[in-house]
TrEMBL record, chains A, B:
Lyase listed as a keyword: yes
Source superkingdom: Bacteria
Provenance organism: Dictyobacter vulcani
Alphabetized GO MF terms: aldehyde-lyase activity
Xylulose 5-phosphate/Fructose 6-phosphate phosphoketolase C-terminal domain: residues covered: 582-783
Domain Xylulose 5-phosphate/Fructose 6-phosphate phosphoketolase N-terminal: 5-365
Keywords: Lyase, Thiamine pyrophosphate
Name of the featured protein: Putative phosphoketolase
Gene3D superfamilies listed in its UniProt record: 3.40.50.920, 3.40.50.970
Known cofactor(s): thiamine diphosphate
Length: 785, 785
């Protein structure tokens, strides 16, 4: 074990005291920040909020990482998993000066310190957890579970970076965190940076003991060794001893990381290293009050938030509090003006090496745009609508293949998928790129390599968490997944959207590449799968997110998909949801028409309509591939059987165009909206998702009650594609019937045709239901011209 | 190691052959089920769908568990994690006769076998994964990750039961599965049954290698030992050897389970046992074709689905297929009539011991209703609305306490929560009940015991998965969680709702207790937390689920909460979402009024209105506690400042009443709806959740465009409760302004009052924003009479 100079450790201990002091100040003080006056009740905040319990440990780690950075000019960022360690991280970025650079009002002097204290957990101030406004953070300490997946995502293709990822023992109980330890099977020491997980155990979550907090070192050692790590324990409650042990352990871990990287980079080693992990056991609320009102505090769950309460009104508590606060000797830490004393200030790393200033934690600063091929190179020749079948996603796969080629040098693009790249018809990627695995490769493996950038792991959480970490450190990517199971990581999509909603308001946060999510294997085409595989609900979730970041695209064919994908891959600071199925589907638009259509977001398709020069009797709108198919077929049937009925077909590719423009920047102005949908004609709308979502969107538009929507009505089973649309009332015949019924208000001719439609429907239904084998599809062509 | 009689193993091997034969038949054959005729192309299904890869292993396990059941009269259910092992499980429940008892058309003869084959993965048939219609199942093989949490939930308070839980190596990669291994820290051998996890590794998921499939036995041993298990490996590709090893291992595991239980039950041992886990490594697609077209199949990812395709058209493939199929010697397994031969039929356990017939897998059969106290015992005296503040959830906590007491004997109620029981003001539970942990208890722990039935683990996935398993085996419970983080397990809520949507259509599935989810710590009252903690999105998710199972309640006060909770705890086959905050809140209704109100689902609150005997000028509607507060305050202000303006207040507690009645059974008939909301008057609606959800709901109602909704607009930060409603445009002043503006169409008096409201708002806003400390709330009382 190396040994760190005692004098330096003592300075580090003082620096740690300063961080702890500032942490407590944020929770308690609204005045007299340096205790230069005798402490009075009115110096104490009227409402005490914040989390002391985890904070001393977080600060200890910060201080020691600073030393590592100084000694090695190391490039390190700090991800704080423990949800409410906010005040500790704020204390540290304040001490190192990055906070004041970004928020000049919170200056490094007495006045600034007072502002730092006052803003914390105060209306209009900052939350008690690490959040977007915290410099140095790419990880919100709110919904727990993602610190390791974010850390590994940050480290991928970032060879010089070390990501210190602190896992609290509460977070360690979450499923996404437990599922993320295995990320090291995907970390390649040759090209990726390193993650140094620090499992910080203090025994409790809010009020109960934790599983790992209560586990023996032997069990923890087995568990983490089983995941492939080299486990280092540091434990204690005697600060100077813990400083010594932790410093020595950090040195060992750092040396191992660099030696593994050297082995791989200089000596060509292809073995997966046993990367180090540190288990740090220190008391909850360490250095805080030992006992209050006869109850043990330090080391118990009672230290989780405010260890001593009612300080204003209880003299005994005030006494405990003041002794506690003065135990850090603020007079030795800060000078008269509130500046950190020089001997401590010298412990701060320089410039962008300060973890609060590291550009990897403000990834837009490092963002290099993707070198994208012309998406039109992958387009499909469509001389006439509805004459050819293609798997649209296959064209995207070809484009993704070439994106990999063009960006091979800059190494800033990855593709994430729960083992469905081929199944989703994106397999052309494998012409140039492999699945990533750092484990031994078997001869029967298909395109698997340690150098692969196709990240396939059967975990939506891990796919998405990695991608988020990759994006927030300035890179690009795409997450493709089964539509129904996109809900598995829906809460992550929400939290990332919220991150972006906040970050775009902060001028110092540079734009990052958008989170692009491709949903395929959709509810309408799950053929041999059952009802559990059918759920378009992520659309509904995304509709609740702000117009400033949320985008939903439903390209109906390959050329539209390519145009949309190109746009999404170029965009910044959005969450782009792209929904399209993988099965062969009819193609509608040639390339130029597709580009124009996607640029507008929605179009009237004149070639499918017969309302030239007149107002239509009914508007048939559609969004999504299968709804488009059924709508076009329905419109064809109506045009051929009731030519005097004027039908207009409107296709929507950008769902947000339907929102009133005050709600979403893509919302069409009302005049344009009425140009397409008329002011008062019935609209029969076939929608990919849950139908009533459309009502949520079009409220505020002219006469919204006339919108009659068909969509996925939560009717599903193992059945044919056509039966699926019948079950959900969205088949061509049902759309025809609806259109005729609604147009009947202006037309007197339709009842016999409605009967005919009903008859066709009945025949098809009974055919579907009685004849289980050799089931021919209702031809998708029988209605083409 | 024990040794199982070779003759018996040979019979079991034949039985296994029969199961494999039936599995392949389901994937391939539409005729000639017993190969009694020469195989012709037209006997083969035109579209080959299904998953062979995992099936032989699943059947092997089934056959061996049957032996264990026979030898020990053991009470065992089988949870199949591997998503698409459907045909294997169907084969086994068919062989044991339970399938034919439930579905007589699929009889145990040649004709029934043909039906069995035809229905599989066929339109109108059954899906290729284990699903609700599969007897013996409480676990859908769709969205992977929950087999262990469901298994442990089933085992809790089920002392005699052993749950065999098969984890596929694909599922083993998911976060929820990895997070569920630790469930054994919560399993008490004295009172709970046992879970026997069988990690079935075959090396691949769909097309890529898996992490554990590629891991060494040493690493797997460490990992599972680290989780606390006693690890047993069985591996091989030589069937008879694997039979012998697996049988012996099962015997060892069974003996250990029973001895641990005896230690705890007879000898008072309180140590947590090292429960056994089996790691079974067998080839993917075991016993299938070794090679097709020169490519290795068995043991590779190519065996995942259909190992040999194009059988109809490719003679070589047909040859491979026929040889494969005949290798099981169907003529030795089934007699001329297609009955299983008697020497194999004797391997089937008896009656309800058959795993397809075990009542634990059809939990409604075992359901004992909760003994509920009169919820009115916990009611709050409300002599006049809006005069008292109470923490409403605290009253529920008292009721839950007494539910624990009254059902202590029948041991069929548990409470699940991610460590927030106290924080959510439900702490009265701890007067009689403890947190559950089977680990060592520390003196500083608070109400922790191995006998506790408060299941606190910081994992929404685990809380919900356990509860689902507990409910589906015939018990009762409640899951309480932070509103925003309920989205973490939203996909589980969806899948459970889908399970219920399917199961209520199956007459043989007995009703089970509802999944009750209490959301508290809501978006409106997250005070010191930030934007990441504010999200009412689970409401939107639930709105997409069918009216047959989905319920959403927004009780505005304690008496309503109690009435709603009582109803939900008595109900069956629903997912009940109950949303209410934990902070002190004004109380509105006395007990009888609350009961009447909740029974109706919504009411006009005359005491808050001034529209007696006339149509109101404006309806002020509200749903949720904070929206109710703001609406009542706004109505008060309007009544006092513009008494000639007629205001009606409608409070909605059962959100589903607003749906058109054809969509949801709770939907009010249109006449009643109009009685409350009028036919054409403006409605200003203050809603707890995302506002546009209301438009989704009320579409189809009379004149829905007149609904103007305020709600959570995704505006949040660390701030005061009043600032939150201002930020989201839902404060009393903003509601007043909106009401006046809308009523202005019929009224000419309001502009100066609108100005006054705006002025009040501005004053409050500037006050909130500039004066960070000692921030007084806008009094909630200043408007009471």
């Amino acid at each position: 074990m190396s040994h760190v100079d005692q004098g330096r450790l003592e300075l580090m201990h003082k620096y740690w005291n300063a961080a702890n002091y500032l942490t407590i100040g944020q929770i308690y003080l609204q005045a007299n920040p340096l205790l230069r006056e005798p402490l009075r009740p009115d110096h104490i905040k009227p409402r005490l909020l914040g989390h002391w319990g985890t904070s001393p440990g977080l600060s200890l780690i910060y201080v020691h990482l600073n030393r590592l950075i100084q000694d090695h000019d190391a490039n390190i960022i700090y991800l704080a998993g423990p949800g409410h360690g906010g005040p500790a991280l704020l204390a540290n970025v304040y001490l190192e000066g990055t906070y004041s650079e970004i928020y000049p009002k919170i200056s490094q002097d007495t006045e600034g310190m007072q502002h730092l204290f006052r803003q914390f957990s105060t209306p209009g101030g900052v939350p008690s957890h690490v959040s977007v406004p915290t410099p140095g953070s790419i990880h919100e300490g709110g919904e727990l579970g993602y610190v390791l997946s974010h850390a590994f995502g940050a480290a991928f293709d970032n060879p010089d970076l070390i990501v210190a990822a602190v896992v609290g023992d509460g977070e360690a109980e979450t499923a996404p965190l437990e599922g993320a330890w295995k990320s090291l099977q995907f970390l390649n020491p040759r090209r990726d940076g390193a993650v140094l997980p620090i499992l910080h155990l203090n025994g409790y979550k809010i009020s109960g003991p934790t599983v790992l907090g209560r586990a023996s070192n032997e069990h923890i050692h087995q568990l983490l060794s089983g995941h492939g790590y080299d486990v280092h324990f540091v434990e204690g409650d005697e600060p100077m001893q813990v400083h010594q042990d932790f410093a020595a352990t950090l040195d060992v871990c750092y040396a191992k990381i660099r030696s593994y990287q050297e082995d791989a980079r200089q000596h060509g080693s292809t073995q997966r290293p046993a990367w180090p992990v540190i288990v740090l056991r220190t008391p909850k609320g360490w250095t805080g009050p030992k006992e209050v009102d006869g109850m043990a505090i330090e080391g118990t769950f009672r230290a989780h938030q405010v260890p001593v309460a009612e300080v204003r009104t209880n003299a005994e508590h005030m006494h405990i509090f003041e002794n506690w606060l003065r135990s850090y000797h603020p007079e030795e830490l800060f000078d008269e003006q509130g500046h950190l004393v020089p001997e401590l200030a010298q412990l701060v790393p320089v410039g962008d090496r300060r973890m609060g200033a590291n550009p990897n934690a403000n990834g837009g600063k490092l963002l290099v745009d993707l070198d994208l091929p012309a998406f039109t190179d992958y387009g499909i020749e469509v001389t006439k609508p509805a004459t050819e079948l293609h798997e649209s996603t296959r064209q995207l796969g070809k484009m993704l293949r070439d994106i990999f080629v063009r960006n091979a040098e800059q190494q800033n693009f990855r593709f994430f998928c729960p083992d469905e790249t081929n199944s989703n018809r994106l397999g052309n990627i494998f012409e140039v790129e492999n699945r990533c695995s750092v484990e031994a490769i078997s001869p029967s493996d298909d395109h698997v390599s340690a150098d692969g950038r196709v990240m396939e792991v059967l975990s939506e959480h891990l796919c998405q968490g990695w991608l988020e970490g990759y994006l927030l450190t300035g890179r690009h990517g795409l997450f493709a997944t089964y539509e129904a199971f996109a809900m598995v990581s829906a809460s992550m999509t929400i939290q990332h959207a919220k991150w972006l909603e906040e970050s775009i308001k902060l001028p110092w946060r540079q734009p990052v590449s958008s989170l692009n999510i491709l949903l395929t294997s959709t509810c309408w085409r799950n053929d041999h799968n059952g009802f559990s595989h059918q759920g378009p609900g992520l659309i509904d979730t995304m509709l609740t997110k702000k117009g400033s970041v949320a985008r939903i695209y439903l390209p109906p064919d390959a050329n539209c998909l390519l145009s949309v994908a190109d746009h999404c891959l170029r965009s910044h600071d959005y969450v782009n949801l792209i929904v399209i199925d993988k099965q062969p589907q009819l193609q509608w638009l040639n390339q130029q028409d597709a580009i124009d259509h996607c640029t507008r977001g929605l179009s009237t398709w004149n070639w499918a309509s017969n309302d030239e020069h007149v107002e239509p009797d009914v508007v048939m709108a559609c969004a999504g591939d299968i709804p488009t198919l059924e709508t076009i077929a329905a419109a064809w049937w109506l045009r051929h059987h009731i030519p005097e009925l004027k039908v207009r077909v409107v296709n929507v590719v950008d769902l947000m165009t339907l929102y009133p423009s005050f709600l979403h920047p893509h919302g069409l102005d009302e005049t344009t909206f009425v140009d397409h949908f008329t002011a008062d004609k019935p609209v029969v709308f076939a929608f990919h998702g849950y139908p009533r979502a459309i009502h949520e969107i079009v409220h505020g538009r002219t006469n919204p009650a006339r919108f009659h929507v068909r969509g996925f009505n939560e009717e599903g089973t193992t059945t044919t594609p056509f039966d699926m649309v019948v079950l959900n009332g969205m088949s061509r015949y049902q759309l025809c019937i609806e259109a005729m019924r609604r147009a009947t208000r202006v037309h007197g001719l339709t009842p016999p045709l409605i009967a005919e439609c009903n008859d066709m429907l009945a025949r098809h239904k009974s055919y579907i239901r009685t004849n289980l084998e050799d089931m021919p599809e209702v031809s998708d062509w029988h209605w083409t011209e």
